[in-house]
Amino acid sequence: MNFLAHIYLSGDNDELKIGNFIADSIKGKQYLEYPPEIQKGIVLHRAIDTFTDTHPIVSKSVARLFDRYGHYSRVIVDILYDHFLAANWKDYSDIPLKIYTEDFYKLLQDNFEVLPKPVQNFLPYMIADNWLFNYRKIDGIEKILFQMNRRIKYRAKMYLAVEELREFYDEFENEFRMFFEELRAFVKVEMSN
Predict the structure, then answer these.
(1) For the chain, which residues score pLDDT lower than 50?
(2) What is the pLDDT of residue 2?
(3) Residues 95, 38: Cα–Cα separation, whole Å
(4) What whole-number distance in Å separates Cα of residue 76 and Cα of residue 144?
(5) How is 108-166 classified by DSSP, letter by letter?
(6) pLDDT of the residue at 156
(7) CA-to-CA distance for 159 and 31, rounded, in angstroms?
(8) Euclidean distance between CA atoms 14 and 37, whole angstroms
(9) 185 class by beta-carbon count within 10 Å (0-12 exposed, 13-18 middle, 19+ buried)
(10) pLDDT at 50
(11) Which sign does the torsion angle of CA 1, 90, 40, 104 carry?
């Protein structure tokens, strides 16, 4: 799962959201340097990633892309699944997506000093381009994939995956919906431990 799903799965706990959001920039045991609730968010993020990476429904989505994008297929599917979460947001939250994302950006700005340097560096771009809100549209996903592709020196042409997204939209959406229900149940158990 990508940013939006990780944030959403953190529930209403702001520190958990921050930890879950920054986790990819925290290596190994560095998470122990953060306050306890942020640590829990980082650990939750890692559990979500493990659950996602080993799930057969996700593997089915990845397989549809693998011939063209190789090991980047998993990254692409994470972003496509965030698209379906954003596009169907009203099925998962009573808070409108625009308000939800604006509130989250404010949370990050209010806690800027706790964010790792890589997150501090990309946050202004994330907010300016409103990544989380724009996940709901295919052109928003294309822009994100293009930006990610730049970071890997254009090796994978990930932005072309919107072609498969359009061609197999219903299949990807059905896989997302089935998987996300299982993921939500998994996270509920994880958070109660």
Answers:
(1) none
(2) 86
(3) 23
(4) 10
(5) HHHTGGGS-HHHHHHHHHHHHTTHHHHTTSHHHHHHHHHHHHHHTTTSS-GGGHHHHHH
(6) 74
(7) 32
(8) 9
(9) exposed
(10) 95
(11) positive
